[in-house]
Amino acid sequence: MKTPSATFRCFRGCPDTFPLTQAIYRCPSCNGLLEVAHDMGALRATSGEAWRALFDSRWAPAMPRATTTPGSGVWSKREWVAPEIPDDAIVTTGEGMTPLYPARRLAAELGFGELLVKQCGTTHTGSFKDLGMTVLVSVVNHAIRIGDVKARAIACASTGDTSAALAAYGAAAGLPVVVLLPRGMVSVAQLVQPLAHGAKVLALETDFDGCMAVVRELASRGLVYLANSMNPLRIEGQKTVALEIAQQLGWTVPDWVVIPSGNLGNSAALYAGFAMAKELGVIDRLPRLCIAQAAKANPMYRAFVAGHAEVAPVVAEATQASAIRIGNPVSAPRAMAALRAMNGVVEEATEAELSDACARADRTGLYADPHTGVAIACARKLRDRGVIGSGERVVVVSTASALKFTEFKLGYHESKLEGVPTPLANVPVPLPPDVDVVADHLTR
User: Taking the CB of residue 289, how many other CB atoms lie within 10 A of it?
Assistant: First the structure.
């Protein structure tokens, strides 16, 4: 079998290719986005059945001690991700292999035939960003060793989760990390994570899009290596969510996948994973895609309902779904391609809708972060309109742990979220330490 390989190439189709270890983020010819191109001829030498068997053999609760990638859902698919990175350069925290939870009570309440939640927030730093960051940091780790990358640090703009993932993986690799955050726009838990991992945190008086403009310029000057999802290495790790969903469903695919999206890289990643699996005979079809956005940060939704082929930037407003508060999504062209290929739709959720969706999900045993609330609310709206059929299998991708959003949860139950009704609010009842009083209260 020919050894698999991968390179960067232009997303628009310009002919040049570039090694994955090169610090390049845009096509030099047309300034378009890049993507990772795999040697599909080499990969096709292995049958779909053989790929399924190989990937299944690597999905195990206990990995051999000799492995350099213990329990990593990403590196268990390494031939499809970054096949030429040596074992000793891989930086992993055991990301991926996350639960696909059958949300039966919530499905029954909302009228779904089958509703499953892919809980990506159970990874090391509490979000799906770990999946992309293990690939990016591993490639940079190798590139530094061979002299291809000479930047002073790896850097990102972030609304919280990206910074946490980059800081953790950078710390694991012993590489310096710089993160640019919009001051006052991330949760306390998200701010603490990069600080704890030793990253240099710069809080800028702007929003995410302003931070992104600064870090892109720093990267263009060669001062930092860019770790945002403009870099297609992130997509390569995140696409394993699609592969895991299919694998957990016995190498079948659901009818729908609903994913909350801000910078739109995760939407593109889902398509990349499903499309590659179909091309290599591992699955037989693509699911439909719903890109779910907060109504206060909805440039993709606006383009979709207007029938536009391109996404125009908007000024994103404050939303409880802070990680997707992005008005100028870098990966919009990639997401548009995914939407077309997967017969997809875009839906939006208001602050009241996403908050209600979280509260209802929590009452059934989930613990949903506001971005998952966006996805559940959008799925519910599609089901109510009949776009999603009553007998269809739906997977909602939960992108982060709700433990990062305690202020949001508390605000809901204390009825302190501005403009948000809280019919499911639940507050402690103060009582004296008297058993008769407590018994009387429970009886009443």
Answer: 24
